[in-house]
Amino acid sequence: xxxxxxxxxxxxxxxxxxxxxxxxxxxxxxxxxxxxxxxxxxxxxxxxxxxxxxxxxxxxxxxxxxxxxxxxxxxxxxxxxxxxxxxxxxxxxxxxxxxxxxxxxxxxxxxxxxxxxxxxxxxxxxxxxxxxxxxxxxxxxxxxxxxxxxxxxxxxxxxxxxxxxxxxxxxxxxxxxxxxxxxxxxxxxxxxxxxxxxxxxxxxxxxxxxxxxxxxxxxxxxxxxxxxxxxxxxxxxxxxxxxxxxxxxxxxxxxxxxxxxxxxxxxxxxxxxxxxxxxxxxxxxxxxxxxxxxxxxxxxxxxxx
Length: 305
Fold this sequence. Notes:
Layout: H1 19-24, E1 27-31, E2 48-53, E3 65-70, E4 75-79, H2 84-87, E5 96-97, E6 103-108, E7 122-127, E8 133-138, E9 143-150, E10 156-162, E11 174-179, E12 185-191, H3 192-195, E13 201-204, E14 210-215, H4 220-223, E15 230-235, E16 240-246, E17 251-256, E18 262-267, E19 273-277, E20 287-292, E21 297-299
């Protein structure tokens, strides 16, 4: 066309997308100017707590919102007012605030088990001071939790989990990680196929070197009560699974001792907590060393290594 004398028009350039966002299917729906008047006052020494009011589980809230609470006075001082397209009939389970306090991450998900064809789902990134939308992300999946962590190299990142149960009405795709200091671009992530399972909830070790994801059976409704799950140990330097640790029915939540030597994993179906001794030296592997049941404790003697 240019050879015939017309002007060449260059398409808009996408400066937000990364190779990983394209691989994971994370796309930027909207980017806005979130500046403006602060939504609440802040004084030196104030302690603020951020939570959400969702619309799921028979809640009477009309919208999915971020609620700011004065932790010392134990009173709410602000609530976001997000337009209906991103807030009505949507909810959130776990929200997060970036470690520098600049952004708040609010999943906007339909009720778990919603009918096919329900409203689209989004990940909302708000300016923490103005409570205005800064970005809207879509992944074609169900955003479940938002968490923050610091890597072993001191990099502050945000972890977004999907609701990954393999059911007819759940479309979780895994998880992905955002960099709040780089325009909230996607750093990396893992699809359910990368993990060879459907992760439920993931937690980083105190030193930030590893991410532990509980992986229940692949189909909760059909297999959850008869098939065990496992704990996927992921190296945050390579974002690869380095060990799969067998669990019972089914692993859910993980916490670590402060020194990082042990992890405790709750099992939902058998009401037990498994104690995991972490392999901290080269070539050492994590192993389950004890179980705590509803009524008694016992040393772990089976070959779960």
